[in-house]
Design goal:
alpha+beta; D-Maltodextrin-Binding Protein, domain 2; ten-stranded mixed β-sheet; 11 helices
């Protein structure tokens, strides 16, 4: 089934938080780094202003790092011991920081909760939502943003192909091929000028966000979440790789040589795009 994918970015506290806190006239400065996410930045500033008003002895030094520089900037700073006191990161990328021993567990009382169980119960499906920040039954982060990635349709292209996106949208990857072929247009040489659907080849992150769910839909999983090990030599992984190979080389419905899927969708050259979030 074609499914929606959600990623949670969580806020973490460093173990050595005191080393990054500067004191001046009984005022404590906390250094907060966040990746650039335009819909969230104004909210951050409003919340920080309210927090500082309610806590006059605390000052938050807020730094926004461009997305393309975020992972490298954060990892380099933390490795050198000059990182922020607080930072947010996507759930799939935080295991490295836990393994390095630089994260502090969440203090429920300081976060405004009675106990850790109250944090989980405060969120719908809290155990699942916070699983990426939970290690050895201990919580290490709180949510700061949620990106829900879904499939979008260009209704005009669907209508031109005689299709109704509400009635004809595929519910399996086998159906995706059939529908995409109906939405595909080629020039005289056979080159694609309009694609029905394609993968986001220019982003390893988004390829993973689609790849592993496809594996899970077949009953597999590349990650053993109990033992923290990976296994990509499975029938399910091979089947998904075969589908991707066929998409490009056998069925010739797309490929990395064409315009990136999101740009193509926004440019009216792609009928279905499945890599844009609720902020798109």
């Amino acid at each position: 089934m074609v499914k929606r994918i959600s990623i949670v970015a969580l806020l973490f506290v460093l173990v050595a938080v005191c080393t990054g806190v500067s004191l001046a006239q009984d005022t404590v400065t906390v250094h907060l780094w966040m990746h650039d996410h335009p819909p969230r930045v104004p909210l951050d500033k409003d919340l920080i202003a309210k927090f500082e008003k309610d806590n006059p002895t605390l000052k938050v030094e807020y730094t926004v790092v461009p997305d393309q520089e975020w992972d490298t900037t954060l990892a380099t700073a933390l490795a050198s011991g000059k990182g922020p006191d607080l930072f947010n990161q996507a759930t799939f990328a935080i295991g490295q920081f836990y393994n390095q021993g630089i994260l502090a567990p969440v203090d429920p009382v300081a976060a405004g909760y009675k106990d850790e169980a109250s944090i989980y119960s405060a969120y719908e499906s809290g155990d699942a939502l916070l699983a990426g920040a939970t290690f050895d039954k201990q919580l290490y982060g709180l949510p700061t943003e949620l990106s829900a990635y879904a499939c979008y349709t260009n209704n005009a292209l669907w209508k031109a192909a005689g299709l109704d996106p509400e009635k004809d949208f595929p519910t399996t990857w086998e159906q995706m091929k059939v529908v995409a072929e109906k939405l595909t247009k080629r020039d005289a040489s056979g080159a694609l000028v309009q694609r029905g659907f394609d993968f986001k080849y220019d982003s390893s992150l988004f390829m993973l966000l689609i790849f592993n769910p496809m594996v899970q839909q077949l009953g597999g999983n590349m990650i053993d979440e109990v033992n923290y090990t990976a296994n990509i030599d499975t029938p399910e992984v091979r089947q998904v790789l075969g589908y991707w190979n066929d998409w490009v080389n056998t069925w010739k419905l797309g490929g990395p040589q064409y315009t990136s899927s999101r740009a193509a969708f926004l440019g009216g050259e792609l009928a279905i795009d499945c890599d844009m979030g609720n902020w798109g």
